[in-house]
Amino acid sequence: MADVAPELALLVRRLCGGALPFAVVAWDGSRVEADPPAGARATSRREPVTVVVRSPDALRRLLYAPGELGLARAHVAGDIDVEGDIFDLLEVRDLLGGPTDHVSVGPRLRDLGRLVASGRRLGALGLPLAPPPEEARPRGRRHSRRRDSSVVRHHYDVGNDFYRLVLGEAMTYSCAYWADGVDDLAAAQAAKHELVCRKLALAPGSRVLDIGCGWGSFVIHAARHHGARALGVTLSPEQADRARRRVADAGVADRVEIRVQDYRDLDEPEFPAIASVGMYEHVGAGEADEYAAGVSRLLAPGGRLLNHAISRLDPDAAPGVAERSFIGRYVFPDAALHEVGRVVSTLHRAGLEVRDVESLREHYARTLRAWVANLQARWDEAQMLVGPARARAWRLYMAGSAVAFEAGRISVHQVLAVRPRAGGDSGFPATRDWLSKPVTID
């Protein structure tokens, strides 16, 4: 058989409309260099990227799952890898007319004939391969308490040490707030916590509920800097264990409680403040009203809710993440991205009044790039902690998400709502001066 790389390069050129935007190395050691850049690509300063196809199984995976799921399986399994900056590869993809959604990658169904022909010439045809074990296939009724718990554990119980490597000392897995003069990830996350505290009007003795508290960073900040009494709930036992230790180390155990509990099962006195940061994405398309009613039940009259969530920009797009997508199988099973207008309407139906909406789209792109930089800087250690397959999946998901935020395909919004008191009193100041002041941390 002739060298494999030229055949793969021919296939890529056909799929990409004539250009080979990256070098190709095949499993037999043969190599084809990228075509010289033309047009908009000619002025690019990006470094050369090489795609390494380590096994004919890559084509077999694409044949049986055309599109991003097959390519994701090949990448996670190690059949396809990338040498160079993964952001450069994703930018090349976009220049060639790439995806319109989250981190979609790979050929489309119409390219199936080309894959079959190449697979036949390369002897790569055969029975379908089992998906990598890192692929989630949750069972049970969607968004039942049991299934939600298993889905959360799939994503978050991959090891606290791995998340510390990626997230840094801040241990905060949501969009940071890059306030003026802030160029450090930990400081940007602290600025985000401060912004949320200020929007919730926390004061000494205030009770605040954090739904989806992660490793406890927000409740620690609220207790330490505002004297609040906080309850954080999560469905992840690993998160809760590390959060409790962090609370104790921060000296705020007398003011902060961490529980492994579904917020829907809380039976507590009403809270004057509720933070829901990075949790709403796990609320399904059909469960949004249940969520809004649940937080409204837990919120005291005059109390404030801060809902911080990734959102779609297309008001006509369905909120669910496709089950057969890379994100749906490897990252956030059962997730849903809701358009912010729908979020506002949902909260209004629950009797809450939305008072402020803020987009942090560019902030999340910068946050994700910081996480990818942390991962790349300690790549060998990351692979030892979670295995090469999961490390590759997380790198692809975070890099692809950063590009999606930068391109305006998705966004993230903080929606601040209040449960009005009798007579309609919101308790809000007459002006927005309280929001326009610089975010500082004592």
Account of the 3D structure:
By secondary structure, the chain is α/β, with parallel strands linked by helices. It has 17 helices and eleven strands. Strands 7-6-5-8-9-11-10 form a seven-stranded mixed sheet. Helix 9 links the parallel strand 5 and strand 6. The longest helix has 19 residues. The protein is elongated and about 80 Å long.
Helices and strands in order:
Elements: H1 4-16, E1 23-25, E2 31-32, E3 50-53, H2 57-64, H3 68-77, E4 80-83, H4 86-95, H5 112-121, H6 145-156, H7 160-167, H8 185-199, E5 207-211, H9 217-226, E6 229-234, H10 237-249, E7 256-260, E8 271-277, H11 288-298, E9 299-312, H12 326-331, H13 340-349, E10 353-359, H14 361-377, H15 379-386, H16 388-406, E11 410-418, H17 433-436
Parallel strand pairs: 1-3, 5-6, 5-8, 6-7, 8-9
Antiparallel strand pairs: 1-2, 3-4, 9-11, 10-11
Helix pairs in contact: 1-5, 2-3, 2-5, 3-16, 4-16, 8-9, 11-13, 14-16, 15-16
List keywords for this structure.
442 residues, 17 helices, 4-stranded mixed β-sheet, 7-stranded mixed β-sheet, alpha/beta
- Low-confidence parts lasting 5 or more residues at pLDDT below 50? 95-101
The largest beta-sheet arranges its strands as: 7-6-5-8-9-11-10
Q: Helical region count?
A: 17
Main beta sheet strand tally, sense and closure: 7 strands, mixed
Shape: elongated
SSE order: HEEEHHEHHHHHEHEHEEHEHHEHHHEH
What integer value in Å does the Rg equal? 23 Å
